[in-house]
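Team,

Forwarding the record for the chain on the shared tracking sheet. I've put the sequence and predicted structure together so nobody has to dig through attachments.
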Amino acid sequence: MKHPDKWRETIDPFSLPYRSFKPVEILGYPHAGNDVFHAKGVFEGKEVRAYIKAARQKGAAIENEVRILSQLHSAIYPAVIDHDLGGTPFSVTLELPGERLSAIVGDNAGMESMNYMEEYGAALAKLHRLSIRAETVKDRRFFHAPSEELLKAVRLEELREFFARPPLTAARCFCHGDFHYANILWDDHHISGILDFELAGYGDRDFDIAWALFRRPGQRFMKTEAEQTAFLRGYQQAAVCDLDAIRYYMAQCYVYFLEFSKNDKEYCEFIRNWVKKVL
């Protein structure tokens, strides 16, 4: 997978106190909140490709991710081959095969994304059925209904009554926390990797689904009802969900993203049309 050249100042990845992995060459610098490096190195006497993730600030949940990945024994989850949680916490995981759906479908002119939606939804349902040791997910602003001030700022005051009626119950399960397209790899039309478990833990099932379903800026798929329906059909083949709660949380996420995507006219128009049609 092709990653960008260095785009900001980072920690020196060769300075970390490795125990079982020896970095040889940095191949790319994926965009991420932490310092992440695509690297070539040596592990158990063999040359491997891996990802080094180093905490960029306090509160980075690398320890949480290492603890969770240690319990997931499947080829689609990254294998942790080195880590250290003192000083600057970091982890090293083996590279998994595959590409992100954004690279596979391109501009999605022929709705190629429809070939992937059901498996995408089913994969999240299967993950939600996992029973592992994990903490409650950390609170995030997206979990909460937008304030009146925010609704006014994005000119959606008419949603005040809608957000005053949140889902009455929350189905609790193990959640990925960030199950969107950039964290899912595909190879030969099937999921080959599920990445980034920093935000994982026990939380609201329907919010986790909504977080996967709503469209991000620049995303050329998940733009249609047909795609969302296929995703949910895949999910419902393996587990149950609350469609009304999912739509509520999707609207909640869209309001927040509208706030910091003001310069993306196409995306803002998409959100407003989605709100008008769905709600």
